[in-house]
Write a structure and sequence with these properties.
heterodimer; A: about 280 residues; mainly alpha; MetI-like fold; B: about 350 residues; alpha+beta; Rossmann fold; OB fold (Dihydrolipoamide Acetyltransferase, E2P); 2 domains; 6-stranded mixed beta sheet; 6-stranded antiparallel beta sheet; 19 strands; membrane (chain B); ABC-type transporter activity (chain B); ATP binding (chain B)
């Protein structure tokens, strides 16, 4: 299907460039806005090239503290969001890989009942059970803590299901070979199952990290103190309805900073699962 | 090195299916015992019970005189070669072979020494750093063998190890397995559905059918004196010709009334099936050959020249018969010929399929 006529190639590339422009321009524009002073932003038209206040704006946001959110710095917010997203991703993967291991490789009473119990939690979105969950968190005194922010989001039927499907493709002979080789259940898990799941774990980590990073409703409910907020929540709080009160240049800085970590995670983990895909058995 | 004793072994699956019915078997030290039978006959189940991968419903398994019913696979001191090799895909050839030793907490230098020794015997030394997916089928097979040998177990178990290889490689590996087993002298149990593999490898051949042991013996003994109709039809290629006989006294005749010519053939009244191997049949060209032989008149239906030999397919009465002749043949389908077999080469079975 590769056509080498120059005219076709020009059209194809032009189409791609239009696509890139549509996707990338708003992000570029956000970046441009983050390098100007508030006055420049509020006085249209906004210039299309970056201004001279890059260092100043970013330093203020990262270390200085922002008035609208009680003087908390964006550095602190980034830290909070990273902790929350990593805890959710790692927690979810740990819980789901262990429960999938139990469901697939062990025969115990009510095995399928447990599997279906995990499965039906998929039918209830977080919002439906948000009030009871909130009550539980309050009773445990977990408001404004990392535990409160992450625990209710960890149990994951989707990830359990994914690992279960993957484990079921592992030939039974492999398990038997390991048993003959003297590997108990934990050794089999560590030495064989976990290395084979690398690709899946990497992919899940990316998905769950972004899921945790972009959480909105739950962090909004479970945090009162500004210094325990996540960057997404803070971003919302920084925008007030009266235009003049909003420090748009800092909002733009926060926007740029908020999208950087997920991008880094994708770029870094991509190498892992591309390698994993290349290495998989024919 | 060990003996293996199976006493009244039964396996009933939770669904009620009886996969293995009262099997008794004693394997002497250093022997290569081949379990052969059609798929679903219980041979793999039996092997897996010896390995400890399958629970034993009834009976006793002893390895080297020690009852192992309650021991796990790792404690039985066995090594197993699987049909799909079951190599650990993320480990190098070296690690695949070393894994079992590491789990047994063997010192590192000792592991290294053993792995390299075995790799050298199996000509795997240049592949030690490769992953299984970078190997050919034959090499993977070798690694699977190496993983078993390196453990230096009391007992080797092979679960159809050659069925994933192409015909040529299978022949080579068969010879190699036989030689290795001989030189190591380790008692082995080998499961296959390929009767040729079974015949060539076995010191002791166990023919199984529907969960029962039909016959145990040396391969050639089984070939020459099959104990049952099933063994007769299963061992040998092409399979033995089986002709239904007419009941009652009088001249020997087939069930459809076709008389059996020749002289010297007397059958007891219980005989219901006559078996003749294709290679025991010969073409009868003059009347001198009638004495002491059974003679059949057949109509040729098809001829299969294979090169060194040809198979003539013909009908005697209403029954299909295969005759093996050496070299090529000039005969044409449709022709009528006479074939004979020595009375001593005939196999006779009764109503229950038992050899008379």
């Amino acid at each position: 299907m590769i056509d080498n006529r120059p005219s076709r190639r020009i059209i194809a590339h032009a189409t791609l460039l239009v696509g890139v422009f549509i996707v990338a321009f708003p992000i570029y524009y956000t970046f441009v806005a983050s390098t100007h002073s508030l006055q420049t932003i509020l006085r249209p038209p906004l210039p299309l090239i970056p201004g001279d206040r890059f260092l100043e704006n970013y330093a203020t946001a990262l270390f200085g503290g922002i008035g609208q959110i009680g003087g908390v710095s964006v550095g602190r917010l980034l830290w909070n969001s990273t902790v929350v997203a990593v805890l959710i991703a790692v927690g979810k993967i740990l819980i789901s890989i262990i429960s999938a291991y139990a469901v697939v490789f062990f025969r115990f009473p009510l095995r399928m009942t447990f599997f279906w119990l995990i499965f039906i939690t998929l039918m209830l979105p977080v919002e439906v059970r948000i009030l009871p969950t909130y009550k539980v968190m309050v009773d445990f005194g977990l408001i404004d803590t990392y535990a409160g922010l992450t625990l209710p989001l960890m149990a994951s039927a989707t990830a359990t299901l994914l690992f279960r499907q993957f484990f079921m493709t592992i030939p039974g002979e492999l398990l038997e070979a390991a048993r003959v080789d003297g590997a108990g259940p934990w050794r089999f898990f560590w030495d064989i199952l976990l290395p084979l799941s690398k690709t899946n774990i990497a992919a899940l980590f990316v998905i769950q990290f972004i899921y945790g990073w972009t959480q909105y409703l739950w962090p909004l409910l479970v945090t009162n103190r500004n210094d325990m907020g996540t960057i997404v929540i803070a971003l919302r709080k920084m925008i007030s309805f009266a235009d003049a009160d909003t420090q748009w240049h800092l909002v733009m800085v926060t926007c740029i900073l908020a999208i950087l970590p997920p991008i880094l995670v994708v770029v870094f983990m991509q190498r892992w699962f591309v390698r994993g895909l290349v290495e998989t058995e024919k | 090195m060990a003996t293996v004793d199976l006493k009244n072994i039964r396996k009933i699956y939770p669904g009620g299916f009886e996969a293995v019915k009262k099997v008794n078997l004693a394997i002497r030290d250093g022997a290569l015992c081949v379990l052969v039978g059609p798929s679903g006959c219980g041979k793999s189940t039996l092997l897996r019970m010896i390995a400890g991968l399958e629970s034993i419903t009834e009976g006793e398994i002893a390895i080297d005189g020690r009852m192992v019913n309650e021991l796990g696979p790792a404690e039985r001191d066995i090594a197993m070669v699987f049909q799909n090799y079951a190599l650990y895909p993320h480990m190098s050839v070296y690690d695949n072979m070393a894994y079992g030793l590491r789990n047994r907490r063997m010192p590192k230098p000792e592991i290294d020494k053993r792995v390299r020794e075995v790799a050298a015997t199996l000509e795997l030394d240049h592949l030690l750093t490769r992953r299984p997916r970078e190997l050919s089928g034959g090499q993977r097979q070798r690694v699977a063998m190496g993983r078993a040998i390196v453990r230096n177990p009391k007992l080797f178990l092979f679960d159809e190890p050659l069925s994933n290889l192409d015909a040529k490689l299978r022949g080579q590996m068969r010879v190699e397995i036989k030689n290795l087993q001989r030189s190591l002298g380790v008692t082995s149990v080998y499961v296959t559905h390929d009767q040729l593999e079974a015949m060539t490898l076995a010191d002791v051949l166990v023919v199984m059918n529907a969960g029962n042991v039909e016959q145990i013996g040396a391969p050639l003994d089984i070939y020459e004196k099959p104990a049952t109709l099933f063994v007769a039809s299963f061992i040998g290629a092409p399979p033995m010709n089986l002709l239904p006989l007419r009941h009652g006294e009088g001249r020997a005749a087939l069930a459809d009334g076709t008389e059996i010519g020749g002289s010297g053939l007397s059958l007891s009244g219980e005989a219901t099936t006559l078996g003749i191997r294709p290679e025991n049949l010969f073409l009868v060209t003059n009347n001198d050959e009638i004495g002491g032989n059974a003679i059949f008149e057949i109509v040729i239906r098809a001829i299969e020249p294979v090169g060194a030999e040809s198979f003539i397919y013909g009908d005697v009465g209403k029954t299909r018969l295969v005759v093996r002749v050496a070299g090529k043949t000039a005969m044409e389908p449709g022709a009528k010929i006479h074939v004979g077999a020595k009375v001593a080469d005939l196999h006779v079975f009764d109503d229950a399929g038992i050899r008379i």
